Automatic annotation (TrEMBL):
Protein name: Phosphate transport system permease protein
Gene3D superfamilies hit by this protein: MetI-like
Recorded GO CC terms: plasma membrane
PROSITE patterns per UniProt: ABC_TM1
UniProt lineage: Bacteria, Pseudomonadati, Pseudomonadota, Gammaproteobacteria, Oceanospirillales
Subcellular localization, as worded in the UniProt entry: Cell membrane
Ranges for domain ABC transmembrane type-1: 66-351
Transmembrane annotation, as ranges: 20-45, 65-91, 112-131, 137-157, 169-190, 216-235, 264-285, 330-354
Length: 369
């Protein structure tokens, strides 16, 4: 029998490596916290002169930026939340595990696309195309989602047993592609028959609605594409952490798939989904490059989604390099940056607290059943 090797000589080296790794991690964490604190202190210090600027000037400057920020964030979330949550529900609860392990990382990789690339495509390709084919673009936003409901009714009536729900994507994706092609083909015909002219021309001449080529609709679609992966990943994790015994118990009591989803899975994962939406909202509020390249950056207050806007992040990026140091405009922009910093910091902190509480609660539910 071979005697065991003596490891006394390697223990000091291993302890040294462990202590070195721990020290590096602690120093990195402290450095990050110190950097965040330093940024906050700098912004607060540079914002103090705003107290001596007339209130009317401050309100006139910041109200336009606040409205543009909320407008861009709302357009983004209206596009991103339905897409992200529907995808998360399907992949977390119904898609087989082997397919989920392939599809989920692919969707999360979309978040790695740089914002400047998304903004460039939106400003150079998407915005001109939507401006020339407004009716077709609106049809693409409305008809394919509506046709998905029709597809679900047809599947329920014709082939619920022959094709499992977990494999619905095999026919739903071709169906949505076909419905998208149908919308592109039918929209110009319907537009010509009902209006007799281009929809954009009708809006501008007959209804007096201003249309900017780079508007909130373009920003919502482009920024929604960038926000979807983050909301999807967190919502998918929240739904996947719901104990299977809860849903199996509901189905054993007679609940169908739809009732189980709405009355068990979504309420249990509700805080995690709320956290995902909060983080998506924080990303939408703080995004800069997509707004710069996909909107007109017009400083105006308008609820029209076909007009542009200027957000806080875009205003800081555009105006701050040209503002005279220590001028009123400089301090107002610094104050706007402080507001943006505090909002994103608080939103992300709240989202993380909610997510951790959800995980603790689901662990208790899973251990108690």
């Amino acid at each position: 029998m071979t005697p065991p090797r003596k490891l006394q000589g390697t223990q000091p080296l291993r302890q040294f490596r462990d202590r070195l790794a721990t020290t590096v991690i602690v120093v990195g964490a402290v450095a990050v916290l110190a950097a965040i604190l330093a940024i906050g202190v700098f912004l607060v210090w540079q914002s103090l002169p705003v107290l001596f600027i007339p209130l009317e000037t401050t309100v006139a400057k910041l109200s336009v930026l606040a409205w543009g920020t909320l407008k861009a964030a709302l357009a983004t979330l209206l596009f991103a939340i339905p897409v992200a949550l529907c995808a998360a529900v399907y992949t977390a609860l119904y898609l087989p595990a082997r397919w989920r392990l392939r599809i989920k990382p692919a969707l999360e990789m979309m978040e790695a696309v740089p914002g400047v690339v998304v903004g460039f495509i939106a400003g150079v390709i998407l915005a001109p195309w939507v401006g020339q084919h407004l009716a077709s673009a609106l049809a693409l936003l409305v008809w394919p989602p509506a046709s998905a409901l029709l597809a679900g009714l047809l599947w329920q009536a014709l082939a619920p047993q022959r094709l499992p729900f977990s494999q619905a994507w095999l026919w739903l994706i071709p169906w949505l592609l076909a419905m998208g092609w149908l919308a592109l083909w039918a929209a110009p015909l319907i537009e010509h028959q009902l209006l007799g002219a281009d929809l954009r021309h009708v809006l501008e001449t007959r209804l007096g609605v201003d249309y900017a080529t780079r508007n909130a609709l373009i920003v919502g679609m482009a920024m929604g594409f960038a926000v979807v992966p983050g909301i999807y990943a967190l919502a998918d994790d929240a739904l996947a952490e719901v104990p299977a015994s809860l849903m199996e118990g509901a189905q054993a009591l007679g609940a169908d798939r739809w009732q189980t989803l709405w009355r068990v899975a979504l309420p249990a994962a509700g805080p995690g989904i709320f956290s995902a939406v909060l983080i998506g909202a924080g990303r939408a509020v703080g995004e800069t490059m997509i707004v710069l390249m996909a909107s007109s950056n017009a400083a105006l207050i308008s609820a029209n989604p076909l007009e542009g806007m200027r957000t806080i992040a875009a205003a800081v990026a555009i105006e701050l390099p040209e503002a005279a140091p220590m001028s009123a405009t400089y301090h107002l922009l610094i104050f706007a940056a402080l507001v943006l910093f505090l909002f994103t910091f608080l939103v992300n902190t709240l989202a993380e607290v909610v997510r951790l509480r959800l995980r603790t609660r689901l662990q208790r539910l899973g251990g108690g059943v």
